[in-house]
Amino acid sequence: MKHLRLTSLGLALVGLFASTTALANSWYEIELIAFSRSTNNSLKEQFEAPVAALKTSNAMDLMRPLVQPAVADLIKAIPACTRPAQAGATLSTPAPAQPVSATVQQQIQQLLTEHQQNKQPEPVVAEAPLDVQLEPEPAATSLFQLNFQNCQMEQWDMDGQLISRPLSAEELALQLPAPAQIPATFTGDGLARDTAYLVGPNDLQLKNLAYQLQREAGKQLLLHTAWRQPLVSGRNSRSHWYAGSYHTDENTDAGQTVDLMQQVQQQLAAVQQGQSSLQLWFSPWQFDSLVQLRLGRFIQFDGTFYLRQSEDTKQPAQLAIKQSARLTLGQIHYLDHPRLGVIIQVKRFTPPESAVATTL
């Protein structure tokens, strides 16, 4: 009987070790480089324009917390902030981070002030008989400011009384405006986590390749990044990556529905005339992409890339480029297009034991 118990215990330990090893081996490190090419006037190929926005609703976005952080994330980094009464669950444990600069604090204040002003109701002026002239009642004006000493929103009412209240969940969810430009080399802090995370700047393995691309004439480095994540066999992993300059949508009304048949007819007419006037601004970023990885016998890579261009008037102002490939672990794969180049490398990654233990 003792022998059977020892055997069962040994099998359990082996099973636990195997599951831990399998979990550690399910992690991968993905490094991605994207660059654009200048116009080649000798090309006669007509490129496609996007016909729909990228479906990024359920895609992983590791860039957003750094590109457009939410007010709640920034508040966590302010050492003087204490836990508000109503928003304790959100701001209870400040994350280790550098204190928010005075410039960012001003941005937070401006964003919250604009948000409060937009929520102010329009003043209602009562209708009066023609022979009676009534002065319209003054609009309810209040001053708002965020006290960064205790993270309380302070409001002065019409009687001059100061009212303090915690930031609401709606206000905490507000994000800072998008920057005018995203750095081409985009990394995180590199700290190990139990979910997908960006690597640190010293963990990029293809720095020399990115540097060579930057020095080549006619090429612009758009994005160089790398991240680590677990991949599950048979399941798709979708992630959203974007870079370059940010463009406001000046040519198309955001609420306007796009008639695809009409756009196709316009595009055909433009091709016959040797020029293209098609303007479909589905993405505000110079480079926008949706990357999908599927783990199987091979790692299947499928990418959809949107690229803005203004040099070639014979082509759409925004190009839709799709690339697919079977990736071999550890090898550098190059996906070629006349306007866009993509370099990707996927390799196994063994997370620290502490990360594996946390996941278990």
In short:
The chain is of the alpha+beta class and 360 residues long.
Fold and architecture overview:
The protein is α+β, with helices and mostly antiparallel strands and 360 residues long. The protein has two domains: 223 residues, no CATH class; 79 residues, no CATH class. 25% of the residues lie in helices and 27% in strands. It has nine helices and 13 strands. The C terminus is likely disordered.
What's the layout of helices and strands?
Blueprint: H1 2-25, E1 27-37, H2 64-67, H3 71-76, H4 88-91, H5 102-119, E2 143-147, E3 152-156, E4 162-166, H6 169-172, E5 181-182, E6 197-198, H7 207-215, E7 219-230, E8 236-246, H8 260-272, E9 285-295, E10 299-308, E11 318-327, E12 332-336, E13 340-348, H9 353-359
Antiparallel strand pairs: 1-7, 1-13, 2-3, 3-4, 5-8, 6-7, 8-9, 9-10, 10-11, 12-13
Oligomerization state: single chain
The end-to-end distance, rounded to whole angstroms, is: 31 Å
- Binned, the helix content reads 10-25%
Provide the gyration radius in Å: 27 Å
Question: Please, how many domains?
Answer: 2
Query: What is the H/E string?
Result: HEHHHHEEEHEEHEEHEEEEEH
How are the strands of the largest sheet arranged? 6-7-1-13-12
Main sheet, how many strands, which sense, barrel? Answer: 5 strands, antiparallel
Assign the structural class, choosing from mainly alpha, mainly beta, alpha/beta, alpha+beta, or little secondary structure. alpha+beta
**What is the β-strand count?**
13
Overall body shape? globular
Low-confidence stretches: 6-24, 84-95, 251-258, 356-360
Strand content: 25-35%
Number of helices: 9
Mean pLDDT: 79
